[in-house]
Structure prediction request, 99 residues.
Amino acid sequence: MVINASIKAKNIEVGLISAPHIKGVITIKDVRFFNYYTNFIVWDKIQSMEIRQTYFMKKYANIAHLVINIRMGENNKEIQCRYLKYDDAQKIMDWYKLT
Prediction:
């Protein structure tokens, strides 16, 4: 479990893309089973966002999970960015609060 978390923390990336005709897009790059996945989430599709962090994640590695709920038709979908650096997660959360 610890090895999986450290590999995951090194391979996940979260970024922001700004475009003139939209408020912003979050990009999430993730690796699962040797495959790369990229999610593009437009600002107006986000319903909620939260940072989850356990005591041990905070004390030993300063990492967190960023959980994003997006709107998909009449339902929603939860996207988790697991084992993300806390500073990166907080930067995304601050961007979401300001827009």
Notes: The CA atoms of residues 63 and 85 lie 4 Å apart. The chain has a mean pLDDT of 82.
